[in-house]
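Annotators were shown the component list below and the corresponding predicted structure, then asked to write short factual statements about the assembly.
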Amino acid sequence: MDFILSDEQSLLAETVRTLYARSYDVQGRRETAATSPGWRSEVWKSLASIGVLELGLGDPEGHPGTYAVEVMVVMSELGAALAPEPFVDAVLRPGNLLAHLGAREAHATLLAQVAEGSTLLVVAGDDGQRCRAWSNTDGWQLSGQVERVATGDCADQFLIVADDEEGSSALFLVAANADGLTRTRYRSRDSRHRADLVLDGVAAKLVASGEQVDVALEATATQAQAAICAEAVGVMAAGLTQTAEYLRTRTQFGVPLSKFQALTHRAADLHVHLELARSMSYYAAMTLAEGRFDPLVAARAKLQITSASRKVGQEIVQMHGGVGVADEHPAGHFFTRLASLEYTYGGRADALNTVVAHVRDHDVVDVY
Amino acid sequence: MQLSLSAEDRALRDELREFFTSEVPQEIREWVLAGGTPRPDHVVTSQRILNAAGLAVPAWPVEWGGKSWNQWQRAIWLAELHRAGVPDPLGFNATMVGPVIATFGNEDQKQRFLPATANIDIWWAQGFSEPGAGSDLASLRTRAHRDGDHFVVNGQKTWTTLAQHADWIFCLVRTDPDAPKPQRGISFLLIDLRSPGVTVRPIELIDNTHEVNDIFFDEVRVPVENLVGVENEGWSYAKFLLGNERTGTAQLGRSKARLARAKRLAVEPGPDGAVLLDDPGFAARLAEIENELLALELTMLRVATTSANGKPNPASSVLKLRGSELIQATTELVLEVAGTRAAGAPAGAEGDPSDWAGQAFSTYQNMRKVTIFGGSSEVQRSIISSSILGL
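Structure shown to annotators:
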């Protein structure tokens, strides 16, 4: 067992970090967030050119979790930069889903376009909002509603989860501009961009159906969960660094805030939260890298991360005083991102329910 | 970055698991796993069995009984030891004075003390804290002045754990009261507790046990050969020792075993016939603590915590702080299972687990110490905020 990043993994982190340092400052992020799609295509193209998008689609030779540690590394940097680019929605989730279905080759051209950053492929309906699917002489059609689709506003293609006429799960490829698909775009409360979709007899191409879709969805969910856990760790780390800097530099009563032990001790507690969360993020990634797509591991990571993220997010704001709630200042953005991530792919209660459901499976709790 | 144990480490784990569960008497291990406090005879028997197999002091230099294991292999040893209910080798011997003598002692001292320390032929006590010097250890006042080829020691040490069973004590003493900073006038002295002038007096703790003591030194003569390292440089040896002490106090494996025991007890029907683990609130609390223990275990494995360059790694403060909180959380959970059977149970023999519900109350009382000793939680937070966060 070891927890050491390889040189390549460290370099990957640095490359992503440098890209974002070059691309955004606080004001730039706010301006970008205010306009559709809320992220920058030139940054997306840069991610493509440094191979990050291709990495996120997984290893065509290995199992779908082969690059899980690299994904963790990338996600932590994206989190630290509060990056708005839709790496999870438009690369990881669709790529992993197709990989688990063994459908990479059948969609090789599409995936190549995703990797080069020219096509945005987004999954919808994997949160239980299922469309109905039926087939006739014209082929497959979908009807239904899928609300709050992250990155649904700018998707070119959708992978939509539906129930077929027998009630089995099925996955379909749908063009975003297909007849009968109405898309209402909006900026969400967490300053991202989403869409509500209404499908009325939309022509769809069947990708896969049956139990294999359920299995693939569950496995993909473990990878998505691990990814946002890593992102949250990055957000917390960057937020804590900024908070420590603020405590060192902000003066009141003639002294820097770091003179007040109540604040430094609370900051120490945040560091402990961060380190424990980081460990669970590593655990999730390392498990995936071994080819184990275990919902319990994902839930354990999410449980630990949410324990930390709520506390850390709130304290980042609190320790910044008034500027913590001013949008102009980055402090509050860490808080908002953490609050959003907490409820992505289920919240703390869902994670806890999964962990509790397994509490009788073992005597002593163990890493293995 | 890799989660699974290598084949070599898996083999080591299996070998140690086999050894601990077959060579250390079952009576001792059952006592510990049932929540009992190891008795002195348990500690000695167990450590001598381990030492005979070269497994008592793995972190020591190989020439003195250590193993050339990496930190993960040492973690496997500790985890298997705890899992099997084997008492820890006496910390004062194995993780405190032993490494100090091995690192800073002269050849004579190593020969004289290390084998006996590993084999607990000498039971060591730790003479650090004083009534006026707890968190502020550097303000200690026990004085050692030079008289010919002896030091003469006068003063008082307190909170001296298990000194009533100890043969020798390693002491921080003030050898230069005029040093510009208090840290610069402290020496590390080894004292035979049978020396004339030494008095050991019990302190009763709130769980009515005799675990700690006051020790009074009245003109105690100590040969200068018992000075470890350089006079007035004892504080640096103390910091080295405290770093190692800090890591050991997380007691992660014990917390995991205690929580597993709480779970086993919670699936038995209680006095009212209800199965506590069926209570969603209780199950959630237990599951959360399990998850936190997992997170801490991974953090322990992830972070190098041994004293390096004579300075404690500040990451060990994270482990001590959180580890001690989780120890307490597990004692609270066992007490919750015991419920109304606990506080009103008759007082039993010290550390005896046969009335588990009554013992749960005493353990809960006793373990309030873990966030106080070994550097209080407040001290650990100060270390984290200054050394790690730069505040």
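Statements collected:
1. Chain A touches chain B through 49 residues (CB under 8 Å).
2. The beta strands of chain A are 121-124, 131-136, 139-150, 157-163, 169-175, 181-187, 193-209, 251-252, 255-256.
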